[in-house]
């Protein structure tokens, strides 16, 4: 997975943007030298269709589903779609899979993903399908190590990256998403960051993740303490943000997918992507 480079771009923005703007944006990223583009599946746009549009618009950029949810995609359909993308765009698509989406009471994520992977593995493919798993806890990280190329983490601190590397071992791939905000005023930065983090600090499985990382009830209350906010959203000027992102690499990440937040509605993060490219790309 070295072909993804050390840093990539992650965004929710394409969920609502017209296709023409999406194509223009990823072509610009490719021209700037970015090697990987990540997007989630959250608001209705189907993961494999969107990946196909982005791959068709570019020549070298790697496109990563980060993540495709297992529930809307029966294993047979997911395998067929991923196999087609692997055949049409050799080496340029990475299938990220995860449990997310609609709650399924009584269903254990680890068991569900293990069964899903069994169904995928029962099917043959003429082209190699590269896959990673969304993983946080030790058992899911072990599954990512043993049944995929590695793991993607989301909204974690640098300490978690070091812990994840210890579980994955030296060979499995570890990608870390991290949110960044171009704002140097502490009060303004933390206000925007708290708005972004609200959902994550109030949903049970995210709260459980943060507690495992050592955050206290005080850290999680009231929109989040300065400590947890500063750990989960790197804010400041470009140089400060770049230095903080490199801490994940030093802690064991192979790749950091950077999510720019704080972009006004109707605007695009492309100017900030350019600044990040100047600071992070070789």
TrEMBL record:
The keyword RNA-binding does not apply. InterPro entries: F420-G6PD/mer, Lucif-like_OxRdatse_MSMEG_4141, Luciferase-like_dom, Luciferase-like_sf. It holds the Pfam family Bac_luciferase. Residues 18-105 form the Luciferase-like domain. SUPFAM superfamilies: Bacterial luciferase-like. Keywords: Oxidoreductase. This is TIGR03620 family F420-dependent LLM class oxidoreductase. It comes from Amycolatopsis thermalba.
